Amino acid sequence: MLKLPVYLDHAATTPCDPRVVEAMLPYFTEKFGNPGSRNHQFGWESEEAVETARERCAAIIGAQPKEVVFTSGSTEGNNLAIKGAAEMYALKPEGQEGRGHIITSAIEHKAVLDPCKRLQKRGFDVTYLEPPRDGIVTAEMVKAAMRDDTILVTIMWANNEMGTINEVPQIGALCHERNVVFHTDATQWVGKMPTDVEKDNIDLLTWSSHKIYGPKGVGGLYIRRRKPRIRLVAQQEGGGQERGYRSGTLNVTGIVGFGKACEICANEMDTERERLRALRDHLESSMIKNVEHVHINGRPERRLAHITNMSFGFVEGEGLMMAIKDIAVSSGSACTSASLEPSYVLKGIGVGDDLAHSSLRFSLGRWSTKEQIDFAIEKLTWAVNHLRELSPLWDMHKEGIDISTIEWAHH
Ligand SMILES: *Cc1c(COP(=O)(O)O)cnc(C)c1O
Predict the structure, then answer these.
(1) I want to staple 363 with a disulfide (CB 3.0 to 4.6 A). Which of 11, 187, 256, 356 is the partner?
(2) Peptide bond before 5: cis, by omega within 30 degrees of 0?
(3) How far apart are CA 22 and CA 9, in angstroms?
(4) What is the per-residue pLDDT across 227-237, written as a single tens digit (0 to 9) for each?
């Protein structure tokens, strides 16, 4: 029997892998030492566990352990990377506040956009690139936006709403040619796709444990140490942990779990990806076959394998989500779904309000099954047909009226 509800929202968060939980358990109880306690067994034991986790986390991105700073997750990692780099590399004309130009994109997560807005208020100039309908931020676009005073580029690796993959290695190469610091929010990418901060030309990279089957509240920030050596201004001060970049007693249990989660992903990502790609493609092709006016958002062949963002014409996304209550999915992005504004990401790539309002994100994960996807296809097909039967817009469309030309009465 299928257990309900079915979880298809793995881009929002993932359950902990039981192997991760098992690795963490001893560090709640008998192995509880503070890794900062340098003069007894309890401290040493915890420190060793943290350093093993650091090796595992570094390995999955091709970094040296010393280059990984543990954070509370990607929101903190992005804040530290962006504000820390802007403050460190700000141009300081004599007697003036630091300033400089930053390039990012309009489809970043709020945890990148909001730190950028904050820096704008403090006098930095920020360019928000708007990719075209395919959703891809290219090196060409970044190159065109580069200025003499550009100090930082921050472009996400894979987009959390559509799964689209930006030209990160190429953007990194461009930044290195011009001596501009390059940060990428790789929260949706790491653990799913092979990553090598050397080959991929990355200076700063953020990722998060709870998106890759680890515990919530822990993540990593990669800070390049050589060629070039990158420095940041710390955003949280105190005991000087994590080489001064992130003061505060380490979340040892979380870090141990994060390390284990990275190790498992490194071993299993290739097989997992192809399995999920087959299921995702089955979901998409079945929906396209079963109902009319299904649109895939983002360039289909340049996406992560486990995410799909589909618009169902003439159906309202929130209503559709209600009609398929047994399936946990996301409309717009998780962070904006409380409001009725359509997704800023879809709007950012020029998707019109109607289609943006009718889109849902499905994201598959480690325990998604064929049976679950078949159930989703059945429910979704029923719900789309049902909602269209109730829709006057659908009636008008069937009668051959072009909805986009209608002048709506304003009150
Ligand atoms: C989830 C997510 C974040 C936020 O990560 P937390 O660890 O939950 O703070 C940032 N960026 C992207 C792209 C995400 O998907």
Answers:
(1) 11
(2) yes
(3) 24
(4) 999 999 999 99
Tell me if the bond preceding 392 is cis, omega within 30° of 0.
Answer: no
- Encode 241-280: b = buried (16+ Cβ within 10 Å), e = exposed: bbeebbebebbbbbbbbbbbbbbbbbeebeebbebbeebb
* Contact by Cβ (8 Å): 98, 92: yes
Pocket test for ligand 1, best of 156, 205, 211, 343 (most atoms within 8 A of CB): 211
161 lines ligand 1 (CB under 6 A): no
pTM above 0.90, yes or no: yes
Of 57, 74, 166, 307, best ligand 1 pocket probe by most atoms within 8 Å of the beta carbon: 74
Which pLDDT value is given to residue 230?
98
Ligand 1: residue of 160, 216, 343 to mutate (most ligand atoms within 8 A of CB) is 160
Atom 5 in ligand 1: residue holding the nearest Cα: 74
Q: CA nearest 288: which of 306, 300, 272?
A: 300
Lookup: tokens for 270: 């290739």
Task: Please give the distance, rounded to the nearest whole angstrom, from the Cα atom of residue 153 to the centre of ligand 1.
Answer: 18
Full set of structural domains in the chain with CATH: 6-11+269-396 (3.90.1150.10), 18-264 (3.40.640.10)
pLDDT at 403: 74
- pLDDT over 90 percentage in the chain: 89
Q: Looking at residue 402, what is its pLDDT?
A: 83
| Mean model confidence pLDDT for the chain | 95
Confidence of residue 333 (pLDDT cuts 50, 70, 90): very low
- Please report which confidence band the pLDDT of residue 94 belongs to, taking 50, 70 and 90 as the band edges: confident
- Would you give the end-to-end CA distance of the chain in angstroms? 51
166 in contact with ligand 1, CB cutoff 6 A: no
Cα 209 to ligand 1 centroid, rounded to whole Å:
10
Ligand 1 neighbour 209 (Cβ under 6 A): no
Is 335 a catalytic site residue?
yes
Give the whole-angstrom CA distance, residue 299 versus residue 297.
7
Rounded distance from Cα 362 to ligand 1 centre (Å) = 17
